[in-house]
C-alpha cells in the first residue's frame, strides 16, 4: 500500500467522514447513514490455492458495515491514484471473496449448531440466512484524466463481437460494473457536510492554480482545516513545502491552508524572479562574449594587433573600438 493510500485511509476511517461520503455519493445528500451505525471490518481477505495448499492474501483499503433498521450493508472504499485498466477484475475479486467469507461463516455456524435439514446440508445454509450486500466504490484522486476500464465489457471488448453473437451472449453474461467516483467529474461538492467538501474541492482544482487559490481564499473552512485533511491535501498535491512547514500554518483550531497557499505562491514568484535574473545574467554573459569575439576578429583582420592587446586591458578603450566598428548594435 502506497503512502498516499495510507494517509487517505487514515483520513476516511473517521466514521463521520465515511458516513458523509456514503450519504453524498450513494444517497445524493440524504442523511441516512449515521456515524454510530458504522463498524470497521478487517480489510484482509484470503483465497486458498487448493493445488498448492497455500493462501493468497488480498488487502482492501477501507471496509465498514452499516447497520440500518435491522439489516446490514457492507461498503468498501478504494482510493485510486492512477487509471487502472483491470479495475473490474480487481473489484470483482474483492466482492466475490467478501461474499465467500460471509458464506463460510454461515456454514461454520450451522456446522457447530447442527441445525440444518438434509436438503439444506448440501449448500450449508438455511432458507432464512442472508448475506450482506457488498458495495465497492472506487475514488479516483489522481490528476490525469481517468481512462481506465469501467466495466467487464471494456476488457472483453464485447462491442467488437458481431452483433448476432453479442446479443445472444449478453443475455446470459454478467457485465460487472465498477462504481467509480472521479473527483474531476463531480458537479458539486456541496452534497458533503464534513471537510470532505473542502478536500474534494481542493483536489478537483489542483490542476488550475488560479482557480484553486480563489477557491481556498473564498472558503472560510480552509483557515482552520483539520490536520488529517491538511495531510491528505499535502500528499496528493505532492507539495514538499506543505509537509515540511506544516507547523508554521498551525492555528488554534487546525491549520491555515489560506496562509500556506499564499506563502507558497509568493515563494514561487520569488523563485521565478531569481531564475529570471540568472537567465538574464547568463544571456548577457553569452552576448558579451559574442561581441568581444567579433571585435577581436575585426581587429586581427585589419592588422590592428596593438589595439587588440590594449582593448583586453582597457575596458573604456574596448567600448570605444566597439562603437567605432558598430559592434554594440549587433
- N-to-C SSE string, H for helix and E for strand: HHEEEEEHHEHHEHHHHEEHHH
Distance between the termini: 60 Å
Q: How many H/I helical runs?
A: 13
Structural class of the helices, strands and pairings? alpha/beta
Into which percentage range does the β-strand content fall?
A: 5-15%
In order across it, which strands form the biggest sheet?
A: 1-4-5-6-7
Largest sheet: 5 strands, mixed
> Can you tell me the overall shape?
elongated
The number of strands is 9
Oligomeric state as shown: single chain
Characterize the structure shown.
The protein is an alpha/beta fold. 50% of the residues lie in helices and 14% in strands. The protein is built from 13 helices and nine strands. The strands form three sheets. It has a five-stranded mixed sheet, sandwiched between helices. It has a two-stranded antiparallel sheet with strand order 2-3. Strands 8-9 form a two-stranded antiparallel ribbon. Strand 8 and strand 9 form a beta hairpin. Helix 1 packs antiparallel against helix 9, helix 7 packs parallel to helix 9 and helix 12 crosses helix 13. The chain is elongated and about 120 Å long. The two termini are 60 Å apart. The relative contact order is 0.08. The model has no long low-confidence stretch (mean pLDDT 84).
What structural keywords apply?
single chain, 330 residues, alpha/beta, five-stranded mixed beta sheet, two-stranded antiparallel ribbon, 13 helices, 9 strands, elongated
Compose a concise summary of this entry.
This protein is α/β, with parallel strands linked by helices.
Amino acid at each position: 500500500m502506497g503512502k498516499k493510500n495510507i494517509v487517505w485511509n487514515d483520513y476516511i476511517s473517521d466514521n463521520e467522514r465515511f458516513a458523509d461520503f456514503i450519504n453524498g455519493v450513494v444517497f445524493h445528500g440524504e442523511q441516512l447513514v449515521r456515524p454510530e451505525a458504522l463498524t470497521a471490518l478487517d480489510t484482509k481477505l484470503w483465497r486458498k490455492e487448493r493445488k498448492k495448499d497455500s493462501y493468497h492474501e488480498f488487502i482492501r483499503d477501507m471496509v465498514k458495515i452499516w447497520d440500518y433498521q435491522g439489516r446490514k450493508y457492507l461498503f468498501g472504499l478504494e482510493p485510486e491514484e492512477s487509471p487502472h485498466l483491470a479495475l473490474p477484475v480487481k473489484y470483482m475479486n474483492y466482492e466475490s471473496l467478501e461474499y465467500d467469507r460471509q458464506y463460510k461463516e454461515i456454514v461454520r455456524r450451522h456446522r457447530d449448531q447442527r441445525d440444518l435439514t438434509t436438503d439444506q446440508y448440501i449448500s450449508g445454509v438455511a432458507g432464512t440466512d442472508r448475506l450482506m450486500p457488498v458495495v465497492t466504490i472506487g475514488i479516483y484522486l489522481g490528476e490525469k484524466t481517468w481512462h481506465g476500464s469501467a466495466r467487464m465489457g471494456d476488457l472483453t471488448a464485447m462491442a467488437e463481437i458481431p452483433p448476432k453473437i453479442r446479443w445472444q451472449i449478453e443475455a446470459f453474461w454478467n457485465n460487472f460494473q465498477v462504481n467509480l467516483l472521479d473527483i474531476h467529474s463531480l458537479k458539486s461538492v456541496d452534497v458533503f457536510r464534513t471537510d470532505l467538501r473542502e478536500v474534494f474541492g481542493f483536489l478537483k482544482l489542483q490542476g488550475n492554480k488560479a482557480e484553486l487559490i480563489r477557491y481556498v481564499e473564498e472558503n472560510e473552512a480552509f483557515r482552520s482545516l483539520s490536520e488529517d485533511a491538511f495531510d491528505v491535501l499535502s500528499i496528493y498535491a505532492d507539495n514538499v513545502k506543505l509537509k515540511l512547514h506544516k507547523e508554521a500554518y498551525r492555528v488554534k483550531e487546525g491549520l491555515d491552508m489560506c496562509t500556506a497557499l499564499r506563502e507558497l505562491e509568493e515563494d514561487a514568484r520569488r523563485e521565478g524572479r531569481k531564475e529570471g535574473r540568472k537567465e538574464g545574467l547568463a544571456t548577457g554573459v553569452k552576448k558579451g562574449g559574442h561581441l568581444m569575439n567579433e571585435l577581436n576578429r575585426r581587429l586581427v583582420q585589419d592588422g590592428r594587433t596593438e589595439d587588440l592587446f590594449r582593448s583586453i586591458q582597457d575596458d573604456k578603450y574596448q567600448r570605444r573600438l566597439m562603437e567605432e566598428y558598430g559592434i554594440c548594435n549587433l
